[in-house]
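Before drawing any conclusions, I needed to go through one protein's amino acid sequence and its backbone structure tokens, quoted below without any editing.
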Amino acid sequence: MAARRPMKQAPSLIDGTRSPNLVIFSLSWPVILDQTFHTLMGYVDTAMVGSLGAAATASVAVTASTMWLLMGIMYAFGSAYSILIARAIGAQDQEKITRGVQQSILAIVILSFVITTLVRGISGHLPRWMGVEPLVAPMSSSYLSIVSFSFPFFITFVFFSNIIRTSGDTKTPLISNVFTNILNVIGNFFLIFPSRVIHIAGQPFDIWGAGLGVEGAAIATLTSRIVSALILLCVMLFRENAIRIRFKGFLFHFEKGYSRQVLTIALPMAAERATLSTGQIVLTGLASSLGTASLAAHHLAITAESITFMPVSGFSLAAATLVAQSLGAGKKEMARDFARRVLTGGILLMSLAGVLLYIFSYHLLGLFTPDEQVIRLGGKVLRIEAFAQPFFAMSIVISGILRGAGDTRWPFIYSVIGMWGVRLFPAFIFVTFFDGSLMVLWVCMVGDLVVRGLLNFYRYRTGSWIEFWESRHQE
């Protein structure tokens, strides 16, 4: 076994010099702020497209579930590499850190080629497969075709932001995301709308605009993703720290042993994401069968709901990082203590978010569209979903805890049970044979979130994730 080398400038998260709550807070708040800001900018993005009408909203909505599926695969592999690197940081093993970063670069190249080629291939067919109306299909295909070119840059951002965050630096991805999301909104402002006159403090100003509509939104997304990838690539190349990209001894092939560890973590995560995203695609298809207004309301309600669970991803990231580093250092009780604290905070945060979601549901929908029918439908389903927030928190945070231990198989199994057994099968029956409405789809969604939350909580309470890590660590 190679001798362990001392690590340069490694963040110290588990040395006991700071209180556990302070460590969790220092990791979580930049991610919470990052995700909240990203969601708010998504609101602005959606509102800009939504101002073009229900057809424009539906043209983006019909691609959303497929995008989540592909993003889930990217996230699964990015997370797997970052977890292994976090364990090496906990063990103070610079050689393993460097090897993990190098291997992740190879994965970025391969995934970029595969996913971009796939999306380009299906861009002209996906709207038809989803059964959208003829008015929507051309706009949707054009949007997806342009966005497909952004995937190499998005994958780079996902991988490097995960590695940087699980090393203990959650502020750098925050700064990058804030800048690039603002850039995306500015791009939308000039590319979506035609030239026009706006009034500020009573003074008229001529504003140039490309008038590209949905295509303009796609170009703005592409541009912002290029910039975000370049920012983090520069950080990984030039900042002197433990996770810096080092080309000395770079292997231009995947190491069998390391890749096996990555696949053990990533494949169940990718399967879980695929299960959930495929389920969302089916659900979107069911919503589409209810008409353009229902599809638009479904998409906008999911967008509005995202502000309630995106911030708690900060707790999930903190859980994954702290559990991975603690276990990498052999500190099992510290891992359990961090897990308990993070889970409590996540449940409290999302419970409060559920209350606010219920109160302001119709106001949120009104931010995205002037269509009264869409607002009415979307507001009703948001109020139903608000009751599932504490259980959704269990799923999100406990998935992070289990991910930090490498125990990713059971969340996948629970996702299959919840998504297909509780959400989709009953929804399909009600919509197909009993003329069910959008409300029925979302009631089934709430049932899924409750079941998944309780199943994940059972896995957490048994402590089997610690046993799983010990069995893998001894191999």
User: Anything to note?
Assistant: Residues 20-473 form one domain. The radius of gyration is 22 Å. Residues 1-11 have pLDDT under 50 and may be disordered. Residues 54-90 form the longest helix (37 residues).
